[in-house]
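Researcher: Next sequence.
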Amino acid sequence: MTDTISRDVTAAAPAATTKSARTPDVTRRRISVPHLLLIPAIAILLIGMGYPLVWQIVTSMQEFGIQQQFGKPADFVGLQNYLTLATDPTMWQVVGRSLLFCFITAALTLIVGILLAVLMTAVGRTARLTLQISLLLAWAMPVVAAMTVWIWLFDDRRGVVNYLLDMIPGVDMNRFSWLSNPLTFFIVASVIVIWMSVPFVAFSAYAGLTQVSDEVLEAAQLDGANGAKRLRYIILPMIRPVIMIVLLLQLIWDLRVFTQITMLQDAGSKAGEFDLLGTYIYKLGAGSQDFGMASAVSIFVLALTLAISWFYVRSLLKEDEQP
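Model: Next structure:
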């Protein structure tokens, strides 16, 4: 009996060894299939974004003007374009103006969007559907069409805004030009950018609010928490991941805003005091034909965007490290 059991164990041992030896190969084969499926997407991403990025970096280290557009070899200047930008006060004025505009508009967009999302959860079905359709129509409107309407609203001669404000006793807004002064220019630009961005924030925040448990809110209400406290201590912490990604996207989009500023400049003034980073790069490249300097500013904006995004990435890494 003992000999029989020993023979069975001895016979089973090679089979078990063979099975365990084959297991890593099978696992390796299974793991390699998803990686192979990712190769086309990665290749398209590298070709679509990698080549323009490399071209921008190379051009930013060259003296690339209008002559180079017709085939003349570009002179390599190394980091000279970056050094010139670093000592240019106009460049830093544009950077400061762009960052201030970016943070103000992104913060206001986030606040208004969250308030609208909370409103959608509080009102009835008909009011909520009306609000959602209105936001969707505002979001779906083409930028050029929307800008045409906004420019007409703030027109100094036939604008509805001046007409309504002029009806207030003691307020003289007759032929007031909103787009001729940098302060009022960027106030108008902020209103337009916020109006165009609020629907995205509102819908994203509303999607997060639908995941908040009603039982938790009812328990907090029974414990004496009013609406403001429930919003601050329960709702906002629970939708914090949604708020963070939406805020990051808004900061990136508002930092690179171009179309709205360009069309407002076409209707008002094109002076340097009205420039943000997008229009500043466009003027260096298409206007002054200095593509080397324009590429250097573009790479700086990319680095600035990565620096802003790093705070979000770092928070994600910390959350992944938590058990």
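Model: The radius of gyration is 29 Å. Residues 15-23 have pLDDT under 50 and may be disordered.
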